[in-house]
From TrEMBL:
It comes from Flavobacterium amnicola. This is Epoxyqueuosine reductase. Pfam families: Fer4_16 (PF13484), QueG_DUF1730 (PF08331). Cob(II)alamin binds at R61, D132, L156, I167, S214, C239, D240. Its EC number is 1.17.99.6. Keywords: 4Fe-4S, Cobalamin, Cobalt, Cytoplasm, Iron, Iron-sulfur, Metal-binding, Oxidoreductase, Queuosine biosynthesis, tRNA processing. Signal peptide: none annotated. Monomer. The keyword Iron applies. TRNA binds at K221. InterPro entries: 4Fe4S_Fe-S-bd (IPR017896), 4Fe4S_Fe_S_CS (IPR017900), QueG (IPR004453), QueG_DUF1730 (IPR013542). GO terms for biological process: tRNA queuosine(34) biosynthetic process. The lineage of its organism: Bacteria, Pseudomonadati, Bacteroidota, Flavobacteriia, Flavobacteriales. One of its GO terms (cellular component) is cytoplasm. HAMAP family: QueG (MF_00916).
Length: 308
């Protein structure tokens, strides 16, 4: 059986690489003991703002065996999205993860391919794929399986590649060889805490989601609070400041996923172009993009706030 586990683990990791994933780590499915008090505390302090969905499925968030019957393994995968070119300097800013097509669909397709491969090569294996859309603590699982450590900005960090990548999971009822967590390499650095325009990183490793620019520009349905005037640093969708200043991101290399390449307008538009954007242009530029979440009205609300 041990030989099987070793063999299965090797072929799964090799196939994930072939599918374009940056890396693959595997953990034993079970209750995330250390995360439970942390998540409870974060919710009790209302750090999720209006993101009410964060309160749902508390138990499932901490225990994948409640999501997939008889699950044995959590396979964590990273997919690079660091772009080769960034936006024009005189522009309202969009988080780099949203430059290309919506990652949910792209990653889900890759994960389904991986699951099909496992079922073809290994046999009767049940599992589910997860991309940010179910109550799974992505970063905790990725850290547990040795793909990186959770940095002071609460994002997963990896020595050789930084943090500009997506995290996804495949939860299976198959026993595999498990990886071990890595160590924290943030040291005494406080670059992310010092640079956050809204002081959303309230302590090392603790982000108050309700103060984050990404929250204001994407999740918040009400008007952006007036006390945030002048603090959003020209971000109209998401924010990358804590990642941009992180020394580990000096190692980021451009992705090689054509579907993540930006629509030309995203990198060339000036502030004036964004201010004058029409429904027709919005639909063209953000066809199949995560930015569609805010709709044109949401983007215009953010731009008006930045201009005022």
């Amino acid at each position: 059986m041990i030989q099987h586990k070793e063999k299965y683990t090797q072929i799964i990791k090799a196939e994930s690489k072939r599918l374009g994933f940056l890396s693959c780590g595997i953990s034993k499915a079970g209750f995330l003991e250390e995360e439970a008090p942390r998540l409870e505390n974060w919710l009790n302090h209302q750090m999720h703002g209006q993101m009410a969905y964060m309160e749902n499925h508390f138990d499932k968030r901490l225990n994948p065996t409640l999501l997939v019957d008889d699950s044995k393994s959590v396979i964590s995968l990273l997919l690079n999205y660091y772009p080769a070119e960034v936006q024009n300097q005189d522009s309202y800013k969009i988080s780099k993860y949203a430059y290309g097509q919506d990652y949910h669909f792209i990653i889900k397709d890759k994960l389904k391919d991986l699951l099909r491969f496992i079922q073809t090569e290994i046999g009767e294996v049940s599992g589910r794929v997860f991309v940010d859309s179910a109550p799974v603590l992505d970063k905790a699982w990725a850290a547990k399986s040795g793909l990186g450590w959770i940095g002071k900005h609460s994002n997963l960090l990896t020595k050789q590649v930084g943090s500009f990548y997506f995290i996804a999971e495949l939860i299976l009822d198959l026993e595999l060889e498990y990886d071990h967590a890595t160590t924290d390499h943030c040291g005494s650095c406080t670059a992310c805490l010092d640079a956050c325009p809204t002081q959303a990183i309230v302590a090392p490793y603790v982000v108050d989601g309700s103060k984050c620019i990404s929250y204001f520009t994407i999740e918040l349905k009400d008007n952006i609070p007036t006390e945030m005037k002048g603090k959003l640093d020209d971000w109209m969708f998401g924010c990358d400041v804590c990642q941009d200043v992180c020394p580990w991101n000096k190692f980021s290399k451009p992705h090689n996923e054509p579907l993540f390449n930006p629509n030309p307008e995203i990198v060339s538009f000036s502030k004036k172009d964004w201010e004058e954007i029409t429904e027709e242009v919005f639909k063209k530029v953000f066809k199949n993009s995560a930015v569609k979440r805010t709709k044109l009205e949401g983007l215009q609300r953010n731009i008006r706030f930045l201009k005022e």
